[in-house]
Amino acid sequence: MLRESIEVGGIALKNRLVMAPVDLEKSDHGTVTEEQLKYYDERTKGGCFGLVVIEHSFVQPNGRASENQLSSAKDEDIAGLTKLASLIHGNGCKTVLQISHAGAVSPLAQVTEGISPSGLVSPKKAMVGGAMAPTHAMSQEEIDGLIENFAAAARRAKVAGFDGVEIHAAHGYLLNQFYSPLMNQRTDAYTIKTLDGRLKLHLQVIAAVRKVLGRDLILGMRFGASDYMDGGSTIEDGVQAAKILESAGLSYLSISGGHCGSSPSNKKGVGYFGDSSEAIKQQTTLPIILTGGVKTKEDAESLLQAGKADMIGVARAVIGNPDWARNAMSE
Asked: Structure pTM?
């Protein structure tokens, strides 16, 4: 099944292998570097990935997750992003840019004061420590500005020649914070009391980004379906949320879970978020990506055969071995 083609958002992907996004910390304060280009070139030569998802890029300065995170926050970023998209296309792969805002997990070293749904401390800080920037609950004006900046980042990705974008709504980043009962205590239209309230910002961002991209480009979402923590979002929440997100016009969902730095200890092995991805795949028609614990081609094939997902993402194995995809697809 791994070699089978699949259509995503009207674009044909040659196979079901995905190069999953990894924060490389190789940019120059947001700008694409030669080291970054070399990393992607080495791993995508031969065109063995159906889709390459570029590491998360911050859409506005107070959403930065680290010093050398990639940026999509200003027009000056387009030149470097164009080089990146062109390189990957030249190697024969389709590619999307992940766009993101860190919210309450922005480090103090990068952001003096951040934004979050309710000004709460992230579980990441509580569990792994670290100097996180203090945050305040977002005003409606700040929410409106954030939506505009996600759309602007998508426009830059489009101008740069990417095949679309992936909105980051997982791992305890800002959109995930609005969805998670651990981080959202709002009582307004974004209320934690209803699933519609928890997903309102997701839907607004999707609508704004889709308007910029048009109907011919891919619009995916990395979705943290379940917090896998006491008091947090559940797999059933994720299933119901996926149905709502599907109706909003997404091209695919890439299913993940937990909070960055505090993923549950029992989530190990091959396809460790497969319980969420399988449940969502059974209830939606969207193509589903599952990433996590895949070390071999056989691992990826087994997850597809088991109905855990429609596409399989590989991250750590590809980091450690630039030839991983070429070796896997030539066997």
From this structure: 0.96
